[in-house]
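[retry 2/3] Peptidase M43 pregnancy-associated plasma-A domain-containing protein: previous attempt timed out, resubmitting with same input.
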Amino acid sequence: MKFTVFATISLLITSSVARRCANVEVPEELRQEAARFRALSASSLRASITGADALRKSGGYNDPTTRTQKIKLYIHNVYINRTAEGGYIPNSDMEKQAKALNEHYAQTGIYFDLRRVTHTKNATWATCERDTPIEQDMKRTIRKGDYGDMNLYLRPLQGWLGWCTFPKDVVRGSDDYWKDGCDVLQSTVPGGTFFPYNEGKTSTHEIGHWLGLLHTFQGGCDEGDLIDDTPAEAIYTDGCPIGKDTCVGPAYPGVDPIHNFMDYSDDACLNQFTPGQTVRIYQTWDRYRAPWKSNSSYTGY
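[retry 2/3] Peptidase M43 pregnancy-associated plasma-A domain-containing protein: success.
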């Protein structure tokens, strides 16, 4: 009963505002790298900036003319008890989430290769806050793969829809190495109960941070997300207000990117990454995560 009351209060708090992502501050290291990436010529990168339809027509993920990347995916359901209220979701829901990720990231050439789903009953882990010894203990125990593999923890978070670690230089076995990954409210999976965020796009948004993307509104009108083709946006989007335009004037062409996965719009409103975001994903991947794939212990895809 105590958990039910607490969860209900938390649900009311969370759903009374727009999408709540805990990645509100960008590490200075990543900000500096993002500014450097912005200055690089996009033509020097073999990033896929075609649309999802063109990618399919060209032969899919194996087309050698298109930049693609497979990423091993491990999804962990950490729950209080074997009920929906306790945070439990079946394997089928985790598989639906993996499928949704690949649909959303198809336009970038990123493909998530689901390797394993796990269930862990542990009430302390299930509701722990970020950057705590409890979180560290959980991830040291159940995390799989290395720094180039995605670990997605679906659990009954309190007060947040999700958060994710930004990429950085880490040492194997360090706290930052083990903490790497994304934590997402389990009821945001496709068909989940947390309307209007129940199409699996919270995980898409959070993994965007893991791949080096910032919020579209991160630096306001003048700095933005440090990607040139993201329209300027002063504040996050709530709902799906067509025509929303918070940065006006000749210096800020276009309306707010309310359909961008890195905004806070309702799930039904989100459907795109920009070509510049695709370039940034591969810039960041090559800088921080690709080196881990050269380890002799790594067996490939």
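[retry 2/3] Peptidase M43 pregnancy-associated plasma-A domain-containing protein: The first helix runs from residue 2 to 15.
[retry 2/3] clearing retry counter.
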